[in-house]
Fold this protein.
Amino acid sequence: MDPVYKALVNIVDGEHVSNLPEELYIYSFDLGTAEPHPPDYVVSPGSVEQIQEIVRLANRERIPIVPLGAGLSLAGLAVPLQGGILLDLKRMDRIIEMNERARYVVVECGVSQGQLTAYLERHYPHLTHSEPGAPPAATIVGNLMIHGQGDLAHPYGFNSDLVNGLEVVLPTGELCRFGSVALGAGWFTNHPLPDMGLFLGWCGVTGIITKVSLRLFPAKKIRGVGTFVVEDADLVPEILFKLTHVQMAEDIIAFSRAIPPFASGLQHITVNIGADSEKELEFKQELIWDDMLGKYILRGDGGYLGFVRGLERPQISKTSDYKKGGGFEYVGSIMPIERYPECYRRGREISERHGIPYTVTGRCIGAGHSMMFAWTYAFNRADPLSILQAREALHETDDLVLELGGVIWKPGIYGQKLLLKRLDPCTRELMGKIKRLLDPQGIMNPGNWEAI
Amino acid sequence: MSMTDFTYADLIHRCFRCGYCKFPVIWTDVNNCPPYGRFRMESYSCGGRLWLTRAWLNDQIHWSEHLAEIVYSCTTCKNCVIKCPLRFNVDIVNMIVAARSEMVEVGKIPSAVKRFLENVELYGNPYGESRSKRGQWIDGTGVEQYRDQEYLLYVGCTGSYDTRAQDAVRALAMVMIKAGVSFGILGNEEACDGNEVHKLGESGLFEMMAEGNTKQFKDMGICKIITFSPHAYNAIKNYYPQYGGNFEVFHYTQILQLLTDEKKIDTQNDFNAKVTFHDPCFLGRWNEEYEAPRAVLRGVRGIDLMEMEKNREGSLCCGGGGGNFQLDLLGGSENSPARRRVREACETGADILVVACPKCLVMLHEAVESEGMKEKLLVMDISEVVAKACAL
């Protein structure tokens, strides 16, 4: 018997370790356009201790380890580029601690967005977390590993800014805690200890996050979404600036898409509003729609499409079936809001050049400090040419992000190379030092951020 | 086998593997797909099965016993159909069944599936028991053979051969006799309904069974059929019409509801228990009958009916559907769906877990034993609850 397989079975058990072709096949894929690369072993650990043992084994044997949440980044970030052990972390799915008064929750690395949303809605309906637009199977930790954002990004920023503490298995097997919990003082804050900044956004190349304390926020009794529409994309930055000035919205998203055809070319702006009373709702609606956007209606530049009560949470995405093809991938970027018109126009050009109906979306982060702008390309999984077209469009879009002065969000390998080429040399060198210090054998998710 | 011959060749690639199908309606966990909940490997998720099937049909992977077990581990519970938000969702289980049909066609099926089908072919039941024993449960009940009564009570294989399920059939028979229902059974002349054969992908054998049963029912002048099993209910109601079998089909809980409404059931005994109800997949998600069993339970004096978090279309399958009652590909673990389901039942504080399916009855009864819950939770069929309430 393969000694590594045998050792893995000894650490976990026979049912949660596989080196059979079926598991190696399934885990070789990302759901986007990335080329598949099979792992040598798939392991689904059930505890932190098992993860530590697996990491030590991988160090001894010099085998790569790729941690995986739900694998929904779509950018190929958990594809085992150099084989090795694929660590499916979703079995560790306990909600460990809930602190209602201090508004935080501590979860294991396999807890999904949908699971947390359901838990809060059932047990703490007055609390909520910033849920990303990903399918509900996406894990909380996976989202933090890529600096995700959610539907509270306007008031509170990136989800990785909402972390109160972390527990991490280092690439050499030690277990570290960060934030107040490192003092044995509970999971209530990440500050004021010296900033480590070593794990969030690193896509698992510096360690395996096993627990996280996540900030929660008041969930208003009434939640809903209002929609405004304009034809002129040049007006969008100004409108978003006005909307973010009010500081009354939970989420602000501008989008435009080719389908349905009647809406093609229009810019829709959705604003999520929460209120604890009808009076509060009316007040917020008046400030947002009348005071801020009234002039656009009067001038005939835009129209208010109404307010729909209730938020669909967990959020449902049907993008993958746009072409009845079972696939889509997008390039995300963090971009100044003022770039919205160019992002829209240039993205639309790329889509049309590749024969793909365009879909673009911009979500406000903070008080208009930036937006996450995404260009989505649907493809037909059964048609290799369609996949190729989407991949080319994605690469062109990666180039476009940098051309427009943005930063590629959760870049795939192609985008990572672009970023590393432009990165300040001192910063790049420091990243390399950190990586080598933490992961001297280079076993963690190798192939990602390779240049460092 | 090749993709071009596959019935769903233009559909199967549309699964994105987003994972909605793993959740229950209430989104509380990702364990509502029974095989995924059992093994927690993506290969066992609904999307994993579809992707692996596609890879097999495209020659990207070869057939193996493991691949077949993954495909056959699906209990056809339809949780995925309910949860998938995409337009092809209605065909998800059909695609799995079609994949099994492909395996059957090329003669590559797990040994347990082969044994199941052989037994049905040889003995008319998956147990491999003699046909002459099929009607033995009737002894001492006063149940008559079908002649020209109003209803045929179609018992099915589990009710006929499994000793625990036999108790429940006997209880149902006693209640119906007491209520004056005109019914008879086929006894040793009854043959398997074929629902599981259909789900195992043996469409040829199923066709023979459906045609045979339809002919038998018609020859005997049967118009109204009460099924003890939701699986039989599904087959006779939904598939037999294609073979000319247009019968009026009832699940027994629908008859019990009718008897309750017409006050033909006198549940005079105070039942005095907290009960929770487990929706069988082939009654609930397959046939959208959620109310009849609950109406019957509400009609029993002294019952405090408590719902599990996962109920109705969000129910967790017991793990016995799609042939898995016999194949047992999901057993042997505390994560087996039946064991998880009895733990969920226990969380409600109920004393009794009530079921309306002989397969669920046996699966959950055994799970209670495996969990060491015998002192805390009793598994009863609705027929047994009603019989007890009627002091029968």
Summary: Residues 319-411 of chain A form a domain with the Alpha-Beta Plaits fold (CATH 3.30.70.260). Chain A has twelve helices and 19 strands.
